[in-house]
């Protein structure tokens, strides 16, 4: 707890400055004081039994309560006692209760009832289960389910904006996260300070939310709109990206003069590339000028898709395309190789079966317009058939330049070969023949006759 030395009001430790007079909040000395609470234990409106205090916000003190008939748990929020003397704050709190009761969204804390107890306004809210954002980060680590949490918060903002209201008071301590048994995540914003968008200026001398969570246009010009709310949502994103606590402003002047905002958006990539990618999102939440900042859920989805998940999806898509291109290139190379061997039946097709060496001949041994191809086989003496003529290896064959030379080689004891050559000049082609496979002769199955032993006493009587 902290207290204001000027107005002597106590607030939660989240506050740095008093929301009513701007005084720097102080931490009281640690001591035990027995205090009487007139609200604890009473039966409110004949239905709600007030239990114990369970928190607070800027304008109200929270109590845990139980419905007498339904045995259901609720949270009842009373306007702070020192504000009850102001008619403006009492009417504002009742207006806030009515507007909050009109909202029906799973991401917004539900207000079910409101009233006045001894001139002290109150509202009754459904009890919200779940961990605060700080506790959730400690349990699951930084960067856990960022996109899912931010999307649910943006949907809640979009719903409130569609009703003609502003949500306000959007800070990380007002976020509750619960994982249901079916695995679904429930994200709820509590303690919203609903404000109608028809009001261009905020109340003079009062701020709806923590001062360090308000953008520059609110503090300097009193403007608070949808883009100002996405600025506060950007601070929640920053909280999930950076494990350390957000730096507190040194003074009110450091906020109004902009020095605090510059420090707030100066982030370094210290842990992972995922964090670095998501820093580009923070520009459209925090650093961008007011007119370029995110202001709708559609703009939110566009920025999140393009900068974080979009980049990862693009990288995955690019890598997939590169893999497909390499695969197609490999298939094409294999197909071209097979096609060329089937169509031409040239040297590459025979390379695995016979060795063919092509040696260019430097001297000109043929007439003009013709090429001379020297065919030599290993071993020599093979018959070479070409264009109806028969040669014996080694042999010189003269063909017109630019034409194809088809030859058939045959030799006893070796496999026959057909080659298609495309000489580019006078060449010597050395062809190593492959021995023919010998067929196995099937021998006759002879049954071995058993030899009978001679009985030397057989013929004797």
Attribute tags:
461 residues; alpha+beta; Phosphorylase Kinase, domain 1; Transferase(Phosphotransferase), domain 1; Immunoglobulin-like; 3 domains; six-stranded antiparallel sheet; four-stranded mixed sheet; 10 helices; 30% helix; rod-shaped
Your description of this structure?
The chain is α+β, with helices and mostly antiparallel strands. It has 3 domains: 36-126, Phosphorylase Kinase, domain 1 (2-Layer Sandwich); 131-314, Transferase(Phosphotransferase) domain 1 (Transferase(Phosphotransferase), domain 1); 347-432, Immunoglobulin-like. Helix content is 30%, strand content 23%. The protein has 10 helices and 21 strands. The strands form 6 sheets. Strands 3-4-5-6-8-7 form a 6-stranded antiparallel beta sheet, with helices on one face. Strands 14-21-15-18 form a 4-stranded mixed beta sheet, with no helix packed on it. It has a 4-stranded antiparallel beta sheet with strand order 17-16-19-20, with no helix packed on it. Strand 11 and strand 12 (185-189) form a beta hairpin. Helix 3 crosses helix 9, helix 5 (226-241) runs antiparallel to helix 8 (273-287) and helix 8 packs across helix 9. Mean pLDDT is 76; it is low at 198-207, 268-277, 308-315 and 343-353.
